[in-house]
């Protein structure tokens, strides 16, 4: 065989072996497998994590925006007045209509993301604004943010949910509950300077002539506070008849009060008319003050339909609801 032919055969055989190796075929027995060439590798560039979805609520580094007066949704307050005074009507503290109202308020708080508890309140029989009323159970509806610790500094914002038997209770006090719900709605999506407890109190209306013949729900709430929880309370605001008038009354049980002064200063900062109302003891803040706790009242402008069948939704002025809600929200804002 000539040299040229031997070379051609060798080339052909090499090609067959290469093709066999590439196609997964076996090598001829006895032929060494060449070592793979040395390859130098580097760690791949890390894949960057995706930016957190700002709407997902899962990014712990994102704090809610601070609340302020402009966060108030007035429609929440107005609709509450219409529903409580119009759809439900009179809400005597031990009656079936009060229970319906308490269920509705509890559902409203729950939809906003709050944790809701129902505090039973035993109420005696008596005479409420000239009408005999039976003994029976009532309740406070209490809303707190998830993780709330009552032993840490906090604020309370509340309003009574009940009415005297003969009144639909639009101004007294669906107006107060309406603003509480509107403020709670804003707080549920925002950040306040201190945690806020929202309370719809039962059995505020009188069942007799003396001091201990009303404010049953708020007195029950205060009685249930431990000494540590009392020490953690930095201020209580009761919203009672807040839908009539052109200025915001800020009531204190005595001549003046630090919480009252702070709310009045907040109103001035917003340019909202407000007036000091000293000697105010006719709302649920008094249950706190008489126990040595800081408390004030928002509201109390006189009006003709007080405690009567004429206290219907048309009595309530949305502009006044807005004034009160804006002052309260700004007061709650971080400073």
Automatic annotation (TrEMBL):
Range of residues in the leader sequence: 1-23
Ranges of residues in domain Peptidase M28: 140-331
InterPro entries per UniProt: M28_fam (IPR045175), Peptidase_M28 (IPR007484)
Keywords recorded for this protein, A-Z: Signal
Renumbered residue ranges of the record's region Disordered: 22-69
PANTHER family to which the protein is assigned, alphabetical: METALLOPEPTIDASE M28 FAMILY MEMBER, PEPTIDASE M28 DOMAIN-CONTAINING PROTEIN
Name of the molecule in the record: M28 family metallopeptidase
Organism encoding this protein: Nocardioides astragali
């Amino acid at each position: 065989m000539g040299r040229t032919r031997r070379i051609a055969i060798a080339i052909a055989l090499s090609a067959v072996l290469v093709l066999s190796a590439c196609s997964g075929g076996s090598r001829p027995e006895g032929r060494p497998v060449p070592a793979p060439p040395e390859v130098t590798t580097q760690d791949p560039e890390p894949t960057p994590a995706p930016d957190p979805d700002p709407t997902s609520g899962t990014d712990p580094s994102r704090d809610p925006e601070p609340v302020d007066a402009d966060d108030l949704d007035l429609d929440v307050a107005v609709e509450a007045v219409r529903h409580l005074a119009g759809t439900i009507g009179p809400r005597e503290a031990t009656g079936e209509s009060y229970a319906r109202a308490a269920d509705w308020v509890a559902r409203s708080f729950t939809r906003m993301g709050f944790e809701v508890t129902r505090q039973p309140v035993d109420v005696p029989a008596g005479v409420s604004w000239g009408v005999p009323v039976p003994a029976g159970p009532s309740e406070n509806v209490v809303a707190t943010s998830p993780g709330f610790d009552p032993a840490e500094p906090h604020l309370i914002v509340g309003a009574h949910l009940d009415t005297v038997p003969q009144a639909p209770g639009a101004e007294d006090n669906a107006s107060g509950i309406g603003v509480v719900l509107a403020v709670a709605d804003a707080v549920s999506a925002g950040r306040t300077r201190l945690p806020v407890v929202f309370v719809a109190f039962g059995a505020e209306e009188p069942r007799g002539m003396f001091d201990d013949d009303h404010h049953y729900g708020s007195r029950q709430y205060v009685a249930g506070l431990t000494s540590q929880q009392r020490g953690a309370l930095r201020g209580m605001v009761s919203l009672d008849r807040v839908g009539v008038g052109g200025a915001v009354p800020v009531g204190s049980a005595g001549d003046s009060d630090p919480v009252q002064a702070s709310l009045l200063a907040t109103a001035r900062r917003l340019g909202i008319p407000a007036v000091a109302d000293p000697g105010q003891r006719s709302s649920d803040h008094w249950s706190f003050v008489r126990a040595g706790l800081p408390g004030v009242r928002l509201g109390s402008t006189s009006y003709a339909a007080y405690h009567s069948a004429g206290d219907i939704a048309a009595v309530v002025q949305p502009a006044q609801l807005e004034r009160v809600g804006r002052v309260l929200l700004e007061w709650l804002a971080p400073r």
